[in-house]
Design brief:
The chain is α/β, with parallel strands linked by helices and about 325 residues long. It has a single domain, classed as Alpha-Beta Barrel (TIM Barrel), CATH 3.20.20.370. It is about 40% helix and about 10% strand. It contains twelve helices and seven strands. Strands 1, 2, 3, 4, 5, 6 and 7 form a seven-stranded parallel sheet that branches. Helix 2 runs parallel beside helix 10. The chain is globular, with a radius of gyration of 19 Å. The protein starts with about 30 loop residues before the first helix and ends with a helix.
Length: about 325
């Protein structure tokens, strides 16, 4: 499978010494937001809406018929109008901006909304956004990144789309301290929640091998976001894109579904209390999707899990509460 490695978090907190907020206490952000003490609260989040027709279809099915509770839109991509038109007809949908600074596929690509002459450091020799996070870090200035983020926000506004949150495609905005500062600052300026794990970070910390210093820095950033009036995640489940069928198992739809279902249940059982965002990529891959990426079967398996009645029963039996970014912001607005 073509892989989009989550560069973010690996190096993002190294230079975060300018934050001086006290470490949060043992009370989870879920509890601060009014959820019951000890509650495990989840946002089932579908990335990549607007990327393709197949991505739109998968996100819509996961939201309407499945367990998904949120999604985010890649504003520079070709199928954004189709998804935003859907949002107009379904105004209660929890949808944010999947802030997009890369264009990773070989033959299916997009450029910056701010224009390549305005942000030359963000584009490659073909005039599209760089395919890799490392190239963005190497070539683009912070001012160019800021221009593009604001262009994506402005296009959403022009289309009548008010995002419920911000997150980062391929984790580009977590690649270094300057980018994360920009990301957090814009969220606070626009008063839009940002996807940031600033709580106990048990699962993401284990995944990314956080040091004690890194964990402390994430909590300091979380404290800053909370102080600004925005909700904060306690943890992040960003595992599913790296789940690959074990060797020897035939890549049938049923085998993909069973494998991912087992993985989701195993990892969700291990969640600690708090608000956790679970990232997935629900897609209904048509024949043409294979010309974009060979990740179609894995993405379709995410959708099949979201639609599975047994998984819904599992969530119920585990006592897990499903929420949205919209609900988190509404709850945060009521907290002193």
């Amino acid at each position: 499978m073509q892989k989009r490695r989550p560069y973010w978090i690996a190096v993002i907190f190294i230079l975060f010494s300018f934050f001086s907020f006290a470490q949060q206490d043992s009370v989870t952000y879920a509890e601060r937001l009014g959820f019951p003490k000890g509650a495990r609260v989840i946002i089932f989040h579908v990335d990549d809406a607007g990327m393709s027709f197949d991505s739109n279809k998968g996100a819509i099915e996961a939201l309407e018929k499945g367990m998904a509770s949120s999604t985010s839109v890649m504003m520079p991509c070709p199928w954004v109008p189709g998804f935003v038109h859907y949002l107009r007809e379904h105004p209660g949908t929890d949808a944010g901006l999947h802030l997009t600074l890369t264009s990773e596929w070989k033959d299916y690509r997009w450029g910056p909304l701010s224009g390549r002459t305005t942000v030359p450091g963000l584009v490659d020799e073909e005039g599209d956004l760089w395919p890799d996070v490392a190239d963005v870090v190497k070539h683009a200035s912070l001012s160019e990144v800021e221009k593009e983020i604001r262009a994506q926000l402005e296009r959403a506004k022009l289309m009548g789309f008010q995002p419920t949150h911000l997150d980062s495609h391929m984790g580009t905005l977590f690649a270094n301290s300057g980018l994360i500062q920009l990301y957090v600052r814009i969220g606070m300026e626009y008063k839009i929640p940002v996807m940031f794990p600033g709580g106990h970070n048990t699962m993401v910390g284990e995944q990314m091998r956080f040091t004690k210093a890194t964990l402390e820095m994430t909590r300091q950033v979380g404290a800053m976001l909370w102080k600004s009036g925005l909700p904060v995640l306690d943890d992040l489940h960003n595992l599913s894109y790296d789940w690959i069928l074990p060797a020897g198992i035939q890549p049938t739809k049923e085998n993909w579904k069973k494998y991912k279902l087992d993985q989701y249940e195993k990892t969700l059982r291990a969640l600690r209390p708090g608000v956790t965002m679970v990232i997935m990529h629900c897609t209904v891959p048509s024949g043409s999707f294979a010309y974009i990426s060979d990740s179609g079967p894995a993405r379709e398996a995410d959708l099949m899990v979201m639609l599975d009645p047994g998984f819904k029963q599992f969530i119920h039996d585990e006592g897990i509460i499903i929420t949205t970014w919209k609900e988190l912001k509404e709850r945060r607005d009521k907290v002193n």
